[in-house]
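REVIEWER CHECKLIST
Item 1: Sequence provided? yes
Item 2: Single chain? yes
Item 3: Sequence as submitted:
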Amino acid sequence: MNVFPLVVDLDGTLIHTDMLHESALRILRDKPLEVLLMPYWLSQGKAVLKRNLSNRTDFDPSSLPYNQELLDWLEQQRMQGRKLILCTATDHAIAQTIAEHLGIFDEIMASDGTTNLAGKHKAQALEQRFGHTGFDYAGNSRADLAVWQCARLAIVVNASGKVTQRAGEICEVEHIFPSPSSSLSTWRRVLRVHQWMKNGLLFVPLLAAHQIANTEAWLALTLAFLSFSLCASSVYIVNDLLDLESDRQHPRKRNRPFASGLVPAYIGVALAPLLLLGSLALAQYVGGHFIPWLLFYFVLTCAYSWRLKSLMLLDCLTLAMLYTLRIVAGAAAMNLGLSFWLLAFSVFLFLSLAFVKRYAELEVQILQGKQKAHGRGYYTSDASLLQTMGITSGYAAVLVLAFYLNSEAVISLYKSPEIIWGTVPVMLFWISWMWMKAHRGEMHDDPLVFAVKDKASLLAGVVFAAILATGAVGWSW
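Item 4: Structure as written out by the authors:
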């Protein structure tokens, strides 16, 4: 039996995140005006800042991204009769909530609103409590080097190579738990590069106006596409940071880089504004009235992330508007006017897809036995009503398409307008197919991402495009 107590750090060691960063993000999301008080709290000391954040925020300890490998090892140590102490710079109230949830710690040492228990302060407190080299310590950062100098053995967790090396120079290392490695795929997921395909909607006005040979328009729209993509990635990062707890309760979203702790939250906080600045820099070269629509998209998306996504029905209407805004921005980049028919068709179609998204999320919640979707304004019992509204919206989009095909615009743009009527059954099939897949629980969280991977949807898209091309070129009967 090992008589030396095992002291365990929290942030970055026991959990793959930092509770100070998470508390600050919750304040930003739930009480944004109180963010203005944070510099004042910090001026009184970091412990004061942590205490105020702790008093003003709440969290679910079961949803945190725990280091499961370390937890399993700690359980083994505890079964061998070893005393476990949670010692952290996090505020005591937060540390106690986590310790009570895990139920493996015999004692808690944490920041108390006066002393920030980190670095030298932590080392002094542990040395006073257990004596010099009277304990073993599990930590992860440069601040823990001061603690390892007075510890008997070091357990290095999620540390960089340099910290691991320094720990070995000042203390005997008993065990090393390597940090999860990030790759190019990780950063693609941070930026959600696969979501950039949505920005292809910017090119819809070009195709609808039959200006495919307009090279200047193609250049402007390519720059607009890149600008919109950087802006979208910026907002996706903001959304992920503000939605950490909800994502962690979702079977797939819990693996996102920020929710899982694979990428620290502070990196997202730094990266989001840089991406936005890059987006605005590119937008300067687009011309037209593109920048105002880009900024409107950014503001509306931020409003969605902060509040609108939790409001029943308004969330789906906002999603539909965000899709439609891409088409409007594409037209603005080319200085083109938009027809009533295209806008009406887009709004109804994207509203149907927004309802598909929410319906699919509720189906996941139903399978988990939950009655309410976390962070959303829906109960799982609302699923059938969302399905009805979504199917109705989708068929309304097809009806608008049918009316458009009988307009003078079609006669002037297409040599064989009667062929274009073939798009109606294609759209009817695709809308019905998407809802059928959603009803069977086979829908991805994002219907457009599902569509580009689904063979039937891709085939429907090819047939739809072929009908339009044939109608434009003409067909000899």
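Item 5: Key structural point noted by reviewer: Residues 115 and 121 are 8 Å apart (CA to CA).
Item 6: Recommendation: ____
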